Amino acid sequence: MTQDQHLQAEAPMTFRAWVAVFGAILGAFMAVLDIQITNASIKEITGGLGATIEEASWISTAYLVAEIVIIPISGWLTRMLSLRTYLTWTSSLFLFFSVCCALSWNLESMIVFRALQGLTGGALIPLAFQVILSLPPSKRTVGLALFSVTATFAPAIGPTVGGYLTQAFHWSVVFYMNLIPGAFLMFAIIYGIDKEKKNLDLLKQLDIWGILSMAIGLSSLTIFLEEGEREDWFSSNFILVLALTSLVFLISFVWIELKTKNPFINLRLLVRKNFGFGCLVNFVVGLAMYGALYLLPLYLSSIQSYNSVDIGKTMMWAGLPQLFIIPFVPKLLKRFDARVLAFVGINIFAFSCYMNSHLTSLVGYDQLMWSQIVRAMGQPLLMIPLSTITTGLIEKSQAGSASGLFNMLRNLGGSVGIAVLSTLMSVREKFHSAKLVEGVTIYSHETVERLAMYKKLFIAKGFDVATASDKALAALDVTIRKQAHVMSFNDCFLFVCGALIASSLLLLLCDKVQSPTGPSDAH
User: The pTM is what?
Assistant: First the structure.
């Protein structure tokens, strides 16, 4: 069948179908946004719940653990319950638990409700991707372009939205805001998605050991990655147990899924060249994307003393320009090889990280805006072609497994990235601090001059000579530590840059995939 004959044979996209697509993408957008949106409001949330900042880390961890566990299971649940039924239930429960989060009365209740919110909202991400993979080939690129908004734009504006709502109203509004788009989401599901017969017979073939081993392994790994740095890694028995548990159960999960007759997720897709390499690149993209979202706000708050609103204003430049670039990517895919576009996009993203690897204690909004704009130019060129390369040769019957694996690995990459970067920052800060201290001696002309300057400033403020000398030494110590901290940020951005460049080579090893605007033999 020629391409023209294939396109003529496609069923036309109706208004109802487009409503379903927009609804599914809106659901995924809300789910991804909720990962980041609480981070900018964490001080206000902990204050309202009477918890410490350290304890509040579980507010985000609970959501991430539940989300990463439900993503791989969503394909199997969809086959059993039907897409419409599962989307209806998981969306309505996501909205219900969002309200419960807003009404939380203490830290424990918030953690429980955040876990349940992640368990229901996390399913919205792979389900939206599955809806797009089920579109006619000529419309799939448009769907992937819309989905990329959830993957890159939502995390970028999360701190902005969360910070603004918290400053203007109250931290609970961060959760209540889900109700407005949630109303359209429910309408889109009911109106746009056809009823299908449930396949409850799948319960008889329930891969219970595969699901349990996956759930225990992934949840242990996520907690290990999220809490490892705070617990000083393997010096903590808690972290050591988590590491061993995740290792044993994830190995068991892989073995069970490869041996069982009816696995709930098809891991064999990963041995296909395009899908395997694409998922590896997606893992690194998750590391870089969520890693950058971790590093920049931390730099702005700790070095520049920005509040949540100022941080949001800086970060929004990584998001807003994407809205103007994304519509052009499907047209570019018609003219250029997806591998070339993805290669260019990922290296533009890498260059933006390189731009951020030259921070000083004076770099702020004006300078960072440009690196954020460069990042916003690269991510759309990467995400849409990457999805095309990875899933372009996947059969429609495997859409659930492909969606679950692809999205799970990006989220897992984010958790790994934050854990690696937080540890790298700590190690490199100690290294730079030690190196800087080596050069600070009474025989150093620069040291003597700096101490004299500080001493004069403190004497001018009314301190006696002895006190001024002590304060000058303390001020010099603060300066050294601050400089070491900035240098550790630079090292982290260089690491992210290198990881992106290295992973870009995998894209060149993939087979050429015809743009979804044309037919795919796998479909």
Answer: 0.81
